[in-house]
Amino acid sequence: LLVTSQAALRLADEEVVAIDPLAVPERDDLEALAASPAAELLVERARRAVPGFEPTEESAPSIAALCRAIDGSPLALQLAAARLAVLDPASLLERLQSSPDAIGRGGRELPERQRGLRATLEWTYGLLDPEAASLFRRLGVFAGDATLERIEQVCGERGADLLEALAGLVELSLVRRRGDGRF
User: Fold this and answer.
1) Which pLDDT score, from 0 to 100, does residue 182 have?
2) pTM of the full predicted structure?
3) Which H/E stretch holds residue 146?
4) 97 burial via Cβ count (<10 Å: 0-12, 13-18, 19+)
5) Taking every pair of C-alpha atoms in the chain, what is the biggest distance, in angstroms?
6) What is the pLDDT of residue 17?
7) Residue 170 DSSP label
8) What pLDDT, on a 0 to 100 scale, did the predictor assign at position 139?
9) Could you give the residue ranges of the DSSP H alpha helices within 2-59?
10) In 3D, which of 73, 81, 76, 75 has the Cα closest to residue 55?
11) Which of 17, 46, 83, 115 has the smallest number of CB atoms closer than 10 Å to its CB?
12) How many C-beta atoms surround the C-beta of residue 110 within 10 A?
């Protein structure tokens, strides 16, 4: 059976294949946009919402920054692309920096939990046990990534409870572990 889920089912012989966010542009030019799966999806979907939409040298930095701001999330990229029918990329980026609701809501055919970033995050947060929810809130003090040791220092916990809570956040893709051991 092939089953898609936000978290592992934890069944015997289960093989988990994690799907990472799409790679975002590393630079702010048209060449970097063309090489980025995240920018490719955003532009493709923007063309559906805005016939004739084409990135320009002027809009490329805003498009690249949009992809990075929403961390290559396919759902968020599609929502942002639809919003480009109303706002240019720079204006959307500016509004997104003050509110995740700026990119709007998804189609009516989607389940409520997939109709916007806030709805998706609230639904996922609701899946957390109290310890993981508490850790997730405390991780908000980090502006970027951190080592496990730093997380333990800042969050004031060590041991199995912290590891279990962190594992729950990783399982639900609210936190990612990088190859160098940072979260």
Assistant:
1) 92
2) 0.72
3) none
4) exposed
5) 55
6) 81
7) H
8) 92
9) 30-34, 37-49
10) 81
11) 17
12) 13
Residue 37 token pair? 């799966």
**Which amino acid type is present at position 85?**
A
- The ranges of the chain with pLDDT < 70 are 105-111, 113-116
- Residue spans of alpha helices (H) in 13-116: 30-34, 37-49, 60-69, 74-83, 89-96
With a CB cutoff of 8 Å and minimum separation 6, the contacts of 86 are none
Q: Tell me, what's the pLDDT at 124?
A: 80
Burial of 180 (0-12, 13-18, 19+ CB in 10 A): exposed
Distance, in Å, from the CA atom of 113 to the CA atom of 127, rounded to the nearest integer, reads: 12
How far apart (Å, rounded) are the C-alpha atoms in residues 113 and 12? 29
CA distances from 68 to 11, 98, 127, 146 (A): 35, 15, 26, 19
In angstroms, the CA 45 to CA 32 distance is 18
SS3 label, residue 64: helix
Q: What Cα–Cα distance (Å) separates residue 171 from each residue in 11, 16, 149?
A: 14, 10, 20
Q: Residue 118 CB: number of other CB atoms within 10 A?
A: 13
Q: Which two tokens stand for residue 87?
A: 């706002």
Q: How many residues are there in the chain? A: 183
